[in-house]
Give the backbone structure.
Amino acid sequence: MAKKIQEKMISIRLHGRGGQGVKKAAQILARAAYLAGYFTQDFALYGAERRGAPVTSFVRLDKKPIGTRGYVWNPDFIIVLDDTLELSCHLKGRKKTTKELINTARDLKLDVEYCKVDATGVAVQVIGRNIPNIALLGAFVKIFKEIDMDHLAKAVEIELGKKHPEAVKKNLQAAEICYDKVVC
Amino acid sequence: MIDILDGNACAAWGARRAKVQCVPVFPITPTTEIIETIAAWKADGKFPGEFVVLESEHSAASACLGASMTGARTFSATSSQGLLLMHEMLPIISGCRTPMVLTTVSRCLSAPIGLWPDHNDTLAMRDAGWIMLICETNQEVLDSVIMAYRISENPKILLPVIVNMDGFVHSYTRTEVDVPEQKLVDKFLSHPELEVRLDVKKPMTLGIPAMGLDYMRYRQQLHKAMLDSFDVVDNVQKAWAKVTGRKYEFLDEYKTKDAKAVIVMIGANSTIARSAVDKMRKKGKKVGLLRIRLFRPFPEKQLRKALEKIDNIAVIDQNICPGMGGILYPEVKMALSGCKNVVCNYIQGLGGNFVSEDDYVDILNDVLKAKADDRKWQM
């Protein structure tokens, strides 16, 4: 169980492109939070089913069963898996307290402060594939604080282990590196 | 066993726990995962039933008819245009009084092509002679598929059942779900043998021609079986509550007892509307929500009882019958015939157009002020 459970519902919105594991990232995050003692809801929204098309996914966490569904308009956290997306559009609905985590190697000129890590670079180096989702979640664990790396590791094992058991270890390695590398 | 499952996985688990014997299918977004899940189980040897992918939804529905006529417990799933292609077979399945369960995952109709949910696909089946359960939560989908077999196979009923959920906001949304133990479901769900069934050892004709008065008698019997199914659905829901603690009703009423205004709707967005009710209640506004779970047979009497003393009613239709309006609206009006409530219709969420808590707050505030019936679109 997590050390403390937040009083209010926490919502997280993830943006990326088809093929980057946007949906899977939400599933892993929800599973990790479930293991940390939360009620969870995760959901992905996409239109054209092809690689490269924008995909959005959502996670809601609460200490009681989730009482809403659908699009997360005002997230507490925004995770961006692809810095070539139109960010002014995808960062919409921010609250004053919203924290952003962006997968980028660049210095993006945004009117908000954000945390960043080159999860794609790490993923390519460690996993050998441009799938940055789990690597980026490693960085998110550091920012989010409600789940720890053990929760993430177990969640990856459950959500990825069945179909891709060979990918679990390297992805977690990439996540550890991003945990250390993320800058805010 | 608690797991994190989406609506599609829940439908598949319902079929698996019900020990379904034949699954004729044709995949379509946002239903495909139901079919993929069962296919994967089949490949892993975890699903002993027959799994058949046909060349179209029409063929899948035809195969469902044939399979269920032999007495095999039959399951299928589809959405949108796929359901419309099945439609030709659906009155034949109910007319032949063959029990089965079809999960429909609501997706808007073409054209233009959309992937996201509204209820025009499933509600278009309202006259097909199928019992229709429209779900809100993942748990409800799983539970309803299992309950649906006990309803459908009741010798007094012998009617097929549609178990509906919304695409995306339901079918792809994962939450914690209790997957009941196999032993519990085995005890709950016997498999009564069909009295009349296809059997190569006893050849017979099913689906005979019947003209005029004969035809009318068949339709009258079908209608009677539908009306008789109220008690059966009620008993099955009570029996399920007894073994799982999960209670389901024809109508899911939330804070309606002292309400001045109530939203009436179906489907997964009810969860969002419920939060809006809570938000308004915190501000002292007496509002509530009534979700219709059993859509066919239509629980007219229960609906009237629940709503007759409510001053202002907002009927939300996530569908459009062009040239008429919302599909639910006239049904609610019929149930309230002669009552003095103000009943307004709001068309909302077509093609999965996003709705938020605030949209329902707006509707409740609007209907609280309404002095006469009105029909509106919330864009």
